[in-house]
Write a structure and sequence with these properties.
single chain; about 350 residues; alpha/beta; two-stranded antiparallel ribbon; 13 helices
Amino acid sequence: MKIERIGFNQQAVVVLGAGATRGASFVALKEKQGKALPPLDTDFFTQTQRLSQAKPKELLGGLIENTVDIFGKNFKLTMEGFLTHIEHLSIVYEDYKLTGRPAENPYPAIRAQFLQVLAALLDEAIGREPKCVFHEALVKSLSSQDMIISFNYDWLIDYALKIHGSQKWNSRKGYGVNVFVQKKKAKGTEYWAWVNPVSGQKEYPNQSITLLKMHGAMNWFPVPTDRKSTPRLQLRIRWWHQKGNLKFEIVPPQWNKPIHSGIYQRIWRKARSTLAEVKALIFIGYSLPETDLPAQSLLMVDAVKSQGIFPLELLVIVNPNQEARKRIRQVLLGRINGKTRIMTFDFFEQFSNFLGKNE
């Protein structure tokens, strides 16, 4: 990563949270127009109310009706809170089937309904060819040695790499896991490749930025869980509703996250090994939630293992929330010493301006 203002030019890991997408340059206009915004964990239901009529009415109407039935009219729920409740209600339903109840457990369908609304909301709030000057500046500052760890489900950073990842983004190698590179299932891999604006040809450089989607993504097809074969990722060309429900591969925002097997195990292992050695960490819009124990452990374990060996030279935190900044610093305490340069910014725009024009 190159930051000319401070003379920095070393390998870095950039960690993206929901605030990075919410802080995109196109969001301000949407907010002025009263349109749906990329959701945060705390305002998902607020943003869903702004969905246009272009989205299937039955999706949103059914979700709100079910939520009111379960939690009451004045519910205040985060995404994680909602899904965690639904998860446990489903377990209780199966454990204590009482006389007079329907034979079928209703909660899996409610959970699936929630995820379909989430997909519709992200599609409308972000768009299918999103252009963000802040993500553009970030990608242009990176080298093929850098890694992006994204906890987001959206495709905004993928699209920035597709458009601005000149000679440093390879969609065949960059996702940290095996992807399809031949025949019909490789169409998505080709779609997300960088296209040379001069020749118009898709290019696949030998070295690539690594993009690890820690919780999956809406532009991934579901990955089979067959343990007999190596998981292989099929990327989507269309990730929006057309006919029927959309199929995608994500780890839902609930307390119990299935990340210890299949494709996620490979992604998390790769993140862990790089985090243990990298000397520069950039957090953009990521709050390191207290309830996300896997993410905290990802950083804490490596901090202990690397204490005194790989101290951080640079730590950047882009987040207006003081408590979130404090949590990140606390988790990384074992890797911070008197020589660590710590920089904080409230908003992505500020950090983007600080990066300047790195080409």
